[in-house]
Write a structure and sequence with these properties.
mainly alpha
């Protein structure tokens, strides 16, 4: 009797390639990105005063970029709540709002933690080396008492995180908080002596991301946001916006310890 070999049939599920989703945020060309960086830096370092009304022509002259690049930058800065576009009335630079800063910190607690943990898991060896370098650069900025350098390194840290996380939705959330946070810190860090504390906490975040340990990253992110909240509460107390908490120094007073 002839034996018939029957091969088992296996159902094969075709693999579905992962398509990169289009970000809901308008993309910037190279010139637009450079214009954005110049204008954003001028706003967060108070070279362009909060509450002022400016024109597109002013930003073109100030930044040195074309009208198209500046318009792209303005759209992005409006999404980040640093500018408000008023048709026929110019462009309004948002005020520094301490209560809004406290509300923003509530959101930052979760956003920063999620972003930093994603990055700790996904960063490549080369990117981890970049985080190590940033950690050392934060420490150097503290050593030099250089607030502008610390601001630049903070911007680099967040941009590197966004490249590593590869999640366009996290990018929208993180960018919506960072410009306002940096501007508030720059405005008040000197009165309350927050440069060294913030710089060292940022160095710690960069270092634990480089190590790739999500649990430690979560703890470091918490400490960094706690520090931002403490500054905001001290400003609010000093300005009479909220009832001063016990032990919080008034504006201009040194921080104990």
């Amino acid at each position: 009797m002839q034996t018939v070999s029957v091969k088992s049939r296996r159902r094969v599920t075709p693999s579905i390639p992962r398509a990169r989703l289009t970000s809901p945020r308008p993309s910037l060309g190279r010139a637009g990105e450079r214009a954005y960086r110049v204008i954003e830096a001028a706003i967060v370092t108070l070279q362009i005063a909060p509450g002022s009304t400016i024109s597109e022509a002013f930003l073109i002259e100030m930044s040195g970029f074309s009208r198209t690049a500046v318009r792209e930058a303005i759209r992005k800065l409006a999404l980040e709540h640093l500018l408000v576009i008023k048709p026929k009335n110019g462009i309004y630079v948002t005020e520094i709002d301490t209560l809004a800063q406290l509300r923003l910190i509530e959101v930052r607690r979760e956003i920063d933690r999620i972003v930093f943990q994603c990055v700790a898991l996904r960063a490549s060896p080369e990117q981890r080396h970049q985080f190590w370098q940033l950690s050392e650069q934060f420490k150097q900025a503290v050593k030099n008492d250089d607030a502008l350098e610390l601001m630049r390194r903070d911007k680099e840290l967040k941009e590197l995180c966004l490249r590593c996380a590869e999640n366009e939705f996290l990018a929208v959330c993180l960018r919506s908080t960072q410009g306002l946070s940096r501007r508030f810190w720059y405005r008040y860090q000197a009165e309350f002596d927050f440069l060294s504390t913030t710089g060292l906490l940022s160095a710690g975040v960069a270092a634990v991301i480089a190590n790739g340990k999500p649990q430690l990253v979560a703890e470091s992110a918490k400490h960094l946001v706690d520090n931002a909240e403490l500054l905001a509460k001290r400003v609010a107390s000093a300005c009479g916006i909220i009832i001063p908490e016990p032990g919080l120094p008034m504006l201009g007073e040194p921080i104990p310890g």
